[in-house]
């Protein structure tokens, strides 16, 4: 059973896990969430713009949106991160200083916006065209009809897909370490990797993986909840009440009076 002992010592060294736990919690988890949330927010804004351009009647808007989407969806994420992180490093240093943190967020935002734009476009186009025609018949402009009626319905339909995309961004945030983050800016993977190199043990990386699971697994179940909620409706059908149930409800809480000697 030596192989089993070696396996446990390599991946489940609890002492090594406990030593890296404070850094994973206080540094890695915080930075991973900051990168992921910032990239998602920027990606949602850019993605909505790309989606509106993609369904526009103007070819001058549709073609650039299509090219943008094809480029950033077609390139590997690590290649996009390296191109932006190293290509704009000099300009970033003049604005943000030596930290490559903003460039990592920008790269992830561009990647996310290409996917989110397609998600929004599919959701908007899934709305019945009669909704838009009805708004136009009521005198609403095309822009107001899209902004107030069509787009909100489309966004509601793609909420599960947006949560899935956030999960993908959380996992892709581990690639930002290629840009050489500062010690205080390390995300979960980099913290686990540095500890694994120092200890010669893979248990810190396993601990980092557990942190990723803590983030992604609940979100996955949240996606399933949203999907079931939107597919079946907000209210579950209630079974019809029998006559006995209606009688019991009518007499529920009614005062009961007994005359003297009635039960004697």
UniProtKB/TrEMBL annotation:
Region Disordered: start-end pairs: 234-264
Broad class of the protein's primary localization: membrane
Subcellular location per the Swiss-Prot or TrEMBL entry: Cell membrane
CDD domains: TM_PBP2 (cd06261)
Membrane topology, from the record: Multi-pass membrane protein
Coiled coil: none
Signal peptide: none
Keywords: Amino-acid transport, Cell membrane, Membrane, Transmembrane, Transmembrane helix, Transport
Keyword Cell membrane attributed: yes
Nucleotide-binding among keywords: no
Domain spans labelled ABC transmembrane type-1: 29-223
InterPro entries: AA_ABC_transptr_permease_3TM, ArtM/GltK/GlnP/TcyL/YhdX-like, MetI-like, MetI-like_sf
Positions of transmembrane segments: 20-50, 71-89, 101-120, 166-184, 204-226
Family note: Belongs to the binding-protein-dependent transport system permease family. HisMQ subfamily.
Protein name according to UniProt: ABC transmembrane type-1 domain-containing protein
Organism whose genome encodes this protein: Agromyces marinus
The organism's taxonomic lineage, starting at the top: Bacteria, Bacillati, Actinomycetota, Actinomycetes, Micrococcales
């Amino acid at each position: 059973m030596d192989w089993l002992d070696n396996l446990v010592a390599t991946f489940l060294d609890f002492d090594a896990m406990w030593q890296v736990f404070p850094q994973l919690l206080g540094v890695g988890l915080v930075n991973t969430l900051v990168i992921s949330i910032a990239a998602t927010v920027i990606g949602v804004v850019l993605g909505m713009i790309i989606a509106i351009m993609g369904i526009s009647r103007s070819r001058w808007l549709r073609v650039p949106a299509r090219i943008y989407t094809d480029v950033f969806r077609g390139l590997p994420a690590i290649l996009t991160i390296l191109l932006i992180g190293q290509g704009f490093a000099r300009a970033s240093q003049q604005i943000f200083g030596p930290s490559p943190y903003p460039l990592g967020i920008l790269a992830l935002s561009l990647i996310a916006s290409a996917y989110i734009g397609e998600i929004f476009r599919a959701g908007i186009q899934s709305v019945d065209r009669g909704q838009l025609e009805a708004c136009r018949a009521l005198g609403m402009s095309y822009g107001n009809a899209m902004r107030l009626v069509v787009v909100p319905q489309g966004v509601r339909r793609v909420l599960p897909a947006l949560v899935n995309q956030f999960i993908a961004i959380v996992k892709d945030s581990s690639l930002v370490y290629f840009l050489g983050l500062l010690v205080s800016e390390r995300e979960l993977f980099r913290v686990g990797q540095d500890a694994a190199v120092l200890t010669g043990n893979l248990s810190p990386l396993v601990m980092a993986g557990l942190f990723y699971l803590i983030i992604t697994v609940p979100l996955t179940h949240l996606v399933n909840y949203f999907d079931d909620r939107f597919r079946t409706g907000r209210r579950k059908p209630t079974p019809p009440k029998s006559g006995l149930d209606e009688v019991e409800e009518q007499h529920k809480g009614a005062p009961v009076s007994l005359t003297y000697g009635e039960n004697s």
